[in-house]
Write a sequence for this structure.
């Protein structure tokens, strides 16, 4: 479904991605893990057209999307849940959801997805007319995911969905990701919480300084001595 | 009492005009963080266009409508050729550019129509006076109130309920997130300039109808005052701009009406005094939202 080849991204003189390649197949959940500054978020921002790469190709469902604008990429079904939630906090939850389905013209599909979002996150239905800034951090993350569901994603890009959340809320977020996975949505997950990321994903790529340094089945990596030392806090 | 009422009505009139201009300022600032000093000059464009058309024999109503459309087009041209190339530039650059656009517009009009002060005459049916209770009003005054109310209702609907309006607010709230939702940023920005242009066009006709004399530099000071109104109300907020405009207009007229003539010449200075006081008490303006975010 997604095939990235030799992606190079610069920020001014700084090379953020030094030619990374990876792929995500239909229905797969793939995680990108690595330390701060490894290039994880940059990768996602490039996939959704916010940052333009210097060289490399991004193939989504058979089409090269490197030169597409963000709104065109969204229309193709590649939906990004950004780091730090980035909800519209001055707007209501209702309006946030409307924006999620901004380019969807099929009214019935929108209605159906709304119901789906409310089934996943009943709290959003209760607070539908409240401004999104009044939600707690965990609820805002739910809204950010709900907003993405409204777009009818073929593939979701989740950037640090557990960042800054209390442990119990982190668990809730991963339960939701599990449900999305079971619903057949292809997921590319960026996480600092390597433990959870390895547990929930089928395959994992480990990034370091803008390079893929290791990749493989998550179940293999979780048992790997080196990975345990570097990313899972020793033991 | 009558004097009080007269000043209140004058204040509401001036306030309505400020409000319409302030809303345009606020929309554009909300999305681009651009203080568009050329926005006030759109009033002048509207006035000169309508005046020239009327002088050429076009019926008043049609001349005004075309005048407003020309203002809207000017607003769009500004966006396309002055501000769009500077999307990624810093605030100082865009601020200076907006001053340059202001000077440019004033000079173009001066070249075409001469710098002379002219008179904007509306038909007698509009300027005739009518007696309501103890107060004498022009038909124009009532028109100004009616048009302002209708305009505010329409704009509020457009911004709150239509897709473009929601897109525009989303861009003001969080531009990157709006892009990730599939909002076409250019459409939202153009929408802000369209609304701003139409509102400034309406305000320009109102202002010149009311104060009759006009010249190429007429828009600048009103524009600056309307910007003050937007800041007082809380820049970026639609309701704030409307309320800020009304409050500023009323305060200014009471100041001019009740204080001795020696100080009323400092009317404009008073406007800035109000700004300073408001910013000391509420740095984000009356309806301004604090920029701190909940984590």
């Amino acid at each position: 479904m997604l095939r990235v080849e030799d992606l190079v991204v610069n920020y001014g003189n700084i090379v953020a991605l030094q030619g990374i390649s990876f792929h995500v197949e239909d229905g797969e959940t793939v995680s990108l893990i690595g330390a701060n500054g490894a290039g994880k978020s940059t990768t996602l921002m490039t996939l959704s057209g916010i940052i333009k790469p210097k060289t490399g190709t991004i193939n989504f469902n058979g089409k090269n999307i490197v030169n597409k604008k963000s709104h065109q990429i969204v229309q193709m079904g590649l939906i990004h849940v950004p780091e730090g939630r980035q909800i519209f906090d001055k707007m209501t939850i209702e309006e946030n959801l409307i924006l999620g389905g901004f380019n969807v013209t099929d009214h019935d599909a929108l209605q159906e997805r709304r119901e789906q979002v409310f089934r996943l996150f009943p709290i959003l239905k209760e607070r539908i007319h409240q401004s999104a800034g009044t939600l707690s951090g965990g609820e805002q993350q739910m809204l950010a995911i709900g907003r993405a569901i409204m777009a009818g994603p073929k593939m979701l890009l989740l950037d640090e969905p557990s960042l800054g959340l209390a442990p119990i809320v982190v668990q809730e977020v991963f339960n939701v990701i599990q449900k999305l996975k079971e619903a057949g949505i292809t997921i590319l997950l960026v996480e600092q919480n390597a433990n959870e990321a390895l547990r929930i994903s089928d395959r994992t790529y480990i990034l370091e300084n803008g390079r893929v340094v290791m990749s493989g089945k998550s179940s293999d990596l979780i048992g790997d001595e080196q990975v345990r030392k570097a990313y899972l806090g020793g033991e | 009492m009558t004097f009080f009422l007269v000043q209140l009505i004058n204040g509401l009139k001036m306030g309505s005009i400020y409000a319409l201009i302030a809303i345009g300022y606020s929309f554009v600032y909300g999305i681009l963080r651009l203080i568009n000093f050329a926005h006030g000059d759109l009033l002048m464009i509207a006035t000169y266009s309508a005046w020239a058309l009327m002088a050429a024999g076009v019926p008043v109503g049609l001349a005004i409508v075309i005048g407003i459309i020309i203002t809207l087009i000017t607003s769009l041209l500004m966006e396309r050729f002055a501000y769009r190339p500077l999307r990624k530039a810093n605030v100082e650059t865009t601020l200076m550019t907006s001053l340059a656009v202001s000077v440019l517009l004033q000079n173009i009009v001066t070249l075409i129509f001469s710098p002379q002060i002219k008179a904007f005459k509306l038909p007698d049916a509009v300027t005739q006076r009518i007696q309501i209770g103890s107060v004498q009003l022009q038909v124009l005054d009532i028109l100004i109130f009616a048009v302002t109310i209708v305009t505010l209702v329409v704009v509020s609907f457009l911004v709150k309920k239509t897709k473009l309006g929601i897109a525009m607010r989303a861009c003001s709230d969080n531009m990157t997130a709006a892009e990730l939702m599939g909002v076409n940023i250019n459409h939202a920005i153009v929408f802000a300039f369209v609304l701003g242009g139409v509102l400034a066009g309406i305000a320009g006709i109102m202002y010149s109808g009311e104060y009759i004399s006009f010249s190429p530099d007429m828009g600048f000071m009103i524009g600056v005052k309307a910007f003050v109104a937007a800041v007082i109300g809380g820049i970026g907020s639609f309701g704030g701009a409307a309320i800020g405009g009304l409050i500023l207009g009323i305060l200014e007229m009471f100041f001019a009406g009740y204080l001795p003539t020696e100080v009323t010449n400092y009317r404009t200075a008073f406007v800035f005094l109000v700004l300073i006081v408001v910013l000391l008490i509420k740095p984000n303006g009356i309806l301004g939202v604090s920029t701190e975010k909940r984590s």
Q: What stands out?
A: Chain B has one domain: 11-218. Residues 11-218 of chain B form one domain.
